[in-house]
Amino acid sequence: MRPDARRNGNYTLSMILEALACAVVDVGLSPEAFGELTMSEWQAIVERYEASWTRDYRTTWEQTRTLVYAALAPHLKEGVTLREVMPLPWDEAPPKPQLPTAEERAEMLRRYS
Fold first, then answer.
1. pLDDT tens-digit map of 77-103
2. Region of 52 on the Ramachandran plot (φ > 0 left; ψ -120 to 50 alpha; else beta)
3. For residue 80, how many other CB atoms are within 10 A of its CB?
4. Number of neighbours of residue 86 by Cβ within 10 angstroms
5. Radius of gyration of the chain from Cα atoms?
6. In angstroms, rounded to a whole number, what is the distance separating the alpha carbons of residues 9 and 5?
7. For a Cys staple, 100 with which of 14, 25, 69, 104, CB 3.0–4.6 Å?
8. Closest CA to 34 of 13, 58, 17, 54
9. Entry pTM
10. Could you read off the pLDDT of 33-47 as tens digits, one per residue?
11. Are 46 and 20 in contact (CB under 8 A)?
């Protein structure tokens, strides 16, 4: 469901049917079991399903990368790594949030206090 709908508590019939379709087709629940869930139970199921799907998706691509590297390794220069041969989007670490400097903190305090 769309985040704005969750926040406002406004659920349209199409949003409920979309969630029902996901529950039945993707997660494997019966329509009756879906109907008995609370919103927090459904959200927990969706979060777990998404985490599992992401893990499986990444595992498949990691296996593909390993096979590609194994096939190319005899033809590569020494020192070339798996990640250099086939970089994947999750290889890069997310940037660390930059903390405000002392001057910026003082300015924020002055402005918002």
1. 999 999 999 999 999 877 888 888 999
2. alpha
3. 13
4. 17
5. 23
6. 6
7. 104
8. 17
9. 0.63
10. 999 999 899 999 999
11. no
